[in-house]
Amino acid sequence: MFGPHLNQDMRGIRVRLLSSRRRHPAAKALLLVFGLFMMGALYSVVAPPVQVSADDTVTQQVEEGRALFAVGCASCHGLNGEGQTSGTIQGPPLAGVGAAAVDFQVSTGRMPMARPGEQAAAKPNRYSDEEIAALAAYVATLGPGPAIPEPAEYTPANISAEDLARGGELFRTNCSACHNFEGAGGALPNGKYAPPLVGLDDKRLYLAMLTGPQQMPVFSDEVLTPEDKRAIIGYLNALHEQPAAGGLALGGLGPVSEGLWAWIVGLGGLVFFAMWIAAKGAKAK
Amino acid sequence: MAEPAATVNDETAVQAQTPKKELGPVFKAAAGPTKWLDDRLGIAGLGRPFLRKVFPDHWSFLLGEIALYSFIVLILSGIFLTIWFKPSMAEIEYEGSYELLRGLHMSEAYASTLDISFDIRGGLLLRQMHHWAAAVFVAAMLTHSLRIFFTGAFRKPREINWLIGVAMLTLGIINGFTGYSLPDDLLSGTGLRFVDGLIRAIPVIGTWAEFFVFAGEFPGELIIPRLYMVHILLVPALLLGLIAVHLALVVYHKHTQYPGAGRVQGNVVGYPVFPVYAAKAGGFFLIVFGVLTLMGAVMQINPVWVFGPYNPAEVTAGSQPDWYMGFVEGGIRIMPNWEWHIGSTTWSWNVAIPGLGLMGLFFGLMAIYPFVEAWVTGDKSEHHLLDRPRNNPTRTAFGVAAMTGYAMLWIGGGNDLVATQFDVSLNAVTYFLRVAVFVAPVIAFLVTKRICIGLQHADRDRMLHGAESGVIDRAPSGKYSERHRPISAAQAFTLTQHEDIPALLPATDTDGYSEKEIRREQLRRKATRFFFIDTLRRPTRAEIEEAEHHHLHPMIIGDGEHHAIEAEEEHHLAK
User: Fold this and answer.
1) Helices first, then strands: H and E counts in chain A
2) Phi then psi for B472, rounded to 5 degrees?
3) CA-CA distance, B396 to B402, in Å (whole number)?
4) By residue range, what is the domain housing residue B455?
């Protein structure tokens, strides 16, 4: 109950203080300083500070990527990723390949290539995750392309049995012609090849379908929806995880390896027994 | 009723078989039923000469047995499979226990194959045994035929049996292919499409032939039931009949034998069927059965569930036929793309030459070779002693050249796997094979012939100078020489038992022959020169005696005595 009285008193004192000093010679200058200060404070509140720092990081990352690109990629793909289509060292233009393609090619060690050739082989990757992200960010600035997918997009979690079977059909229709019925890989003309798909993680499989690296066609989201891609990944995982029914898979290369084993183990083993039997003479005639 | 029969049996059995010996429990138990059968069928009269029939002993004579026993395993496991397999192309939805295909549409044939693999007790084991047995069956037949070829066992009087063998090999391959096609999986359907292409490539009538075989467009709805009939009835029946004739002829001709002490054209040295070969062959059958069962149990073959159901819109890398069709596949894969278009017709030489031509060439060459060689040598005599391959260098070289050409085609059939497994370019493999399929056999021919002649030289040295002892003498003059030991009589037999076939000079005395006869004879004589001109003559008696004189000691010491005894014993048994 005492508050209002006290407040009224204090306000009265302050108002009197200000009004009594308003013609002070320093008042104008002080007011100016105060106004500037208020404006600055207002600006700092209104202007979004997060955006400022992000812009900064992206620019920094792109710059980092550009530097890495100049060292590791530009000799084939050109300083600005415009590509080189003539000469002994060639590389395709990279505008529009997207961050996803960079992530796939560099994280699998395919890029940078060790030497020019028909096809870039997978090898141990020498880049850190940050460096790959920087390269991807830089290449993404060259033109719009597929972005790196989130785990939820490529992980076939809780996939239904129906979808697995559908994934098998999709795999046999779209993939097995080059990659073999079991994903064991296959040969393509002129030293090119479709690599084996055994033991690859979900992201790698998804990125390959999304970006169509090397000889592989691009399976864009219009051709194979993300759901279809997950079904294929789920089918491959299930196929490779299931125990080999019927015994040792013997390389899983189909009739050629089976024929080899039929000759070596089957006929070879039986010839061994035949020699043994023929070497045993009769004890009694 | 049983009592009087038993006494009679005891008496006759004892007298008929081993009069002085007490019978063992097995024979005693068998005596009754045997007598019962003999009274009604007269089997003792048939059986006795057969049971004492002599067969020579060598592991390479068991290759045909491997084929025979694999065939028996094929029939036994096949009977089991027919109980469950449904040869129908009707489309159904799969509801079995293999999860990755559940709910998909497929033919009944494929679904029932999945059922055999996953839902029927022992089904996968028997399916895999059946498939392994098929692969081993054809492999054993082919190896058996190589043994026959390289030892010259196809010569008179066995030419017809050789032809029967070629027919069985053909039928075995056909049946293997029809069986491979039955499950209607993605691989077998692709294989069927391959054969569809072969049929269409028959010039002019190809399309009609295709419509006849498939009852319309590929794949139609009848091909699986039709192949089923061929697979389980037609070809097995033919094979069974031919096997019976094949074996009957082996008994009739008597088995051939390798040269050795006491072995001549007129005898067979070895052991009698009963008890020695009955035990050996019976045991070997069980071994073959056991090996095939083990393979079926622990080695996966033709995992159709991985391939998926056949769909003409799908295909897979690594589509190959089973190994025995591999050479045709290879021929197609390395063939340049030659095609004619005349009017409204297409002449697919790219498929017809390797596809139809190679199979014709393979079986054709096999079938005519015995007659070609007989014509060249002009030899009308019977041969029961086998050739050592080195002693007919040209034949051996032809055989190795054929094997080499076959191997090149075989590699071609797996050119994609060669490319991926050995990290080479598919095109490089294919271009290499296009040349190698012609060049490699020629190289193999020349090399083999030289090796054979080299081995003949080694044999000749052994005959004339004895066996190398490994003991080196140094003469006072400093000269080194190796001591030679005399060889045994048995070895001397082996080294000299072959016949020298002369290479003939062109005939000069041609009076009284027609132009055609002369031309044919000159051609034959030319062929004898090609075959035998650089074959080494075996040492003559005079040469051996001269060598003995030169070395001042006998070259051959008579230790062949116990061989001779064995041989003598079997001599009268065999004839």
Assistant:
1) 13, 2
2) -105, 130
3) 10
4) 451-574
Q: Which amino acid is at A4?
A: P
Q: CATH assignment of A151-241, given 3.90.70.10, 1.10.760.10, 1.10.1040.10, 1.20.120.450?
A: 1.10.760.10
**For the residues of B478-531, what is the DSSP string, one character each?**
S-EEEEEEPEEHHHHHHHH-SPPPPPPPPP---TT--HHHHHHHHHHHHHHHHH
A53-83+90-140 — its CATH code? 1.10.760.10
Contact (Cβ atoms closer than 8 angstroms) between residue B288 and residue B66: yes
Residues of B within 8 A of A189 (CB-CB) are 426-427
Of B100, B276, B313, the CB nearest to A173: B313
Rounded to whole angstroms, how far apart are CA atoms B4 and A115? Answer: 96
Phi-psi map region of A78: left, alpha, beta (phi>0 left; psi -120 to 50 alpha): left
For residue B275, how many other CB atoms are within 10 A of its CB?
13
Provide the shortest C-alpha distance from residue B427 to chain A (in Å).
Answer: 5
Number of domains in chain B: 3
Q: d(Cα B176, Cα B59) in Å, to the nearest integer?
A: 26
pLDDT per residue, tens digit, chain A (285 aa), is 444 455 555 555 665 666 677 778 888 888 889 999 998 888 877 776 555 555 677 788 899 999 999 998 998 998 888 888 888 788 899 988 999 999 999 999 999 988 888 888 899 998 999 999 999 999 999 989 899 999 988 999 888 999 999 999 999 999 999 999 999 999 999 889 999 999 899 999 999 999 999 899 999 999 999 999 999 999 999 999 998 888 888 877 889 999 999 999 999 999 999 999 988 766 543
Same fold for the pair A53-83+90-140 and A151-241: yes
* A266 Cβ under 8 Å from any chain B Cβ: yes
Identify which of B165, B163, B158 has the alpha carbon closest to the alpha carbon of residue B142: B165
B530 Cβ contact partners less than 8 Å away, ≥ 6 residues apart: B394
ipTM above 0.90, yes or no: no
Q: Which two tokens stand for residue A56?
A: 């900064």
Q: Check if A248 contacts B (Cβ < 8 Å).
A: yes
Closest-CA distance, A242 to chain B, in angstroms, reads 10
**A241 interfacial to chain B (CB closer than 8 Å):** no
